[in-house]
């Protein structure tokens, strides 16, 4: 296979895996269901990804890469806005829900937690860099440490993830995002 | 059995069930494990609670009753403070994690979602009443609707639940709670 074919195959696997995790959850996404949703045999799938964990983490890393780009350009609140806009798609809540499902593993399986942590760390780092640029530009409030503002934004993001994963709608989210943005902005 | 005995038995069942759900998660808390943790036979347990769902929801309702009292007296941020203080107890993250586990059921099982919603509605109502009293007292910011402030606080609470359920610590939470309280307070 050429590199182009390999990349296309990888994208096909990740897209199908995401749909499968969203529909059936982490536990419910059996190898058989992954095969059906992806349209490839287990041999072909696990030629590209070591195991189900690696497949799951690769889908999460794909999200993280998109989030890092959005954070760098427009901040973590924009990530929340984008997420809320996709809330009506059934795959959104399902995929977020499958992330909640792994919370037990995150608490009890240090290797899995370390692999997940790389993803969170990339987003945290992008958020911190964006906040530092905003502080230099004088648009960020100056009376609180960067890390407090960063953790405040991450807490709000986590809250939106839980909210959507529990099947609640996000139609009234915009005024709340406005309040969050105002809370971190420099007072004029 | 006298009413006192019935109440004590009910408390014993709920305490054991909470420990069991915290240790093994919702799915992992089998009837056998519930029997062991509670120290009663399945017959005795399900004489008081119809099924595992009812037991799970009763533990959650117990939490909700405590939360409603704290909200009425000191607001939802105090609930977050109390939760963060119990974060080091292994049962805290485990029990929160078992709540994340039911997110799929909340999205797909309307009857279960309706029973869970009663719990959320009681906390939301207590929060709204507290905010209305605070607005009358002139300590709440007056430039945003009560429901926006309420949803902002609920989002932050959900964020803390997810944060702790994922096994992260809460030692640096106080400055973040300070920022949240300031964001809803009337400017002096």
Task: Spell out the key features of this protein.
homodimer; Tetracycline Repressor, domain 2; 188 residues; mainly alpha; 80% helix
Give a short overview.
Two copies of one chain form a homodimer. Chain A contains ten helices and no strands. With 188 residues, chain A is mostly helical.
CATH architecture of chain A: Orthogonal Bundle
The rounded distance between the terminal residues' Cα atoms of chain A is 58 Å
CATH topology heading of chain A? Tetracycline Repressor, domain 2
Query: Number of helical segments of chain A?
Result: 10
InterPro entries (chains A, B): DNA-bd_HTH_TetR-type_CS, Homeodomain-like_sf, HTH-type_TetR-like_transc_reg, HTH_TetR, Tet_transcr_reg_TetR-rel_C_sf
GO molecular function, one term (chains A, B): DNA-binding transcription factor activity
Keywords (chains A, B): DNA-binding
DNA-binding region (chains A, B): 30-49
Topology:
The structure is a homodimer of 188-residue chains.
Chain A: H1 3-28, H2 31-38, H3 42-48, H4 52-74, H5 76-85, H6 90-101, H7 103-108, H8 110-136, H9 146-165, H10 173-184
Helix pairs in contact in A: 1-2, 1-4, 1-6, 4-5, 4-8, 5-9, 5-10, 6-9, 8-9
Give an overview of the whole structure:
The first copy, chain A, is built from ten helices and no strands. Chain A is mainly α and 188 residues long. Chain A has a single domain, classed as Tetracycline Repressor, domain 2, CATH 1.10.357.10. In chain A, helix 1 packs across helix 4, helix 5 runs parallel beside helix 9 (146-165) and helix 6 (90-101) crosses helix 9. In chain A, 37% of the residues are buried. The A-B interface holds A 25, 27, 93-94, 97, 100-101, 103-104, 106-107, 113, 144-145, 147-149, 151-152, 154-163, 165-167, 172, 175-176, 179-180, 182-183 and B 25, 27, 93-94, 97, 100-101, 103-104, 106-107, 113, 144-145, 147-149, 151-152, 154-163, 165-167, 172, 175-176, 179-180, 182-183.
């Amino acid at each position: 296979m050429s590199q182009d074919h390999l990349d296309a195959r990888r994208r096909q696997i990740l897209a199908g895996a995401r749909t499968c995790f969203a529909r059936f959850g982490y536990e419910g996404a059996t190898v058989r269901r992954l095969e059906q949703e992806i349209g490839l045999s287990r041999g072909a799938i696990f030629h590209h990804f070591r195991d189900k964990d690696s497949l799951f983490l690769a889908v999460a890393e794909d999200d993280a890469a998109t989030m890092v780009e959005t954070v760098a350009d427009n901040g973590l609140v924009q990530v929340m806005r984008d997420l809320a806009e996709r809330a009506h798609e059934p795959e959104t809540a399902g995929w977020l829900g499958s992330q909640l499902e792994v919370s037990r593993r995150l608490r009890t399986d240090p290797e899995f937690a370390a692999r997940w942590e790389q993803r969170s760390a990339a987003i945290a780092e992008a958020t911190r860099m964006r906040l530092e640029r905003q502080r230099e530009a004088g648009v960020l409030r100056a009376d609180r440490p960067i890390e407090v503002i960063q953790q405040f934004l991450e807490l709000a993001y986590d809250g939106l993830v839980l909210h959507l994963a529990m099947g609640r709608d996000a139609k009234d989210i915009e005024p709340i995002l406005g309040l969050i943005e105002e809370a971190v902005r420099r007072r004029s």
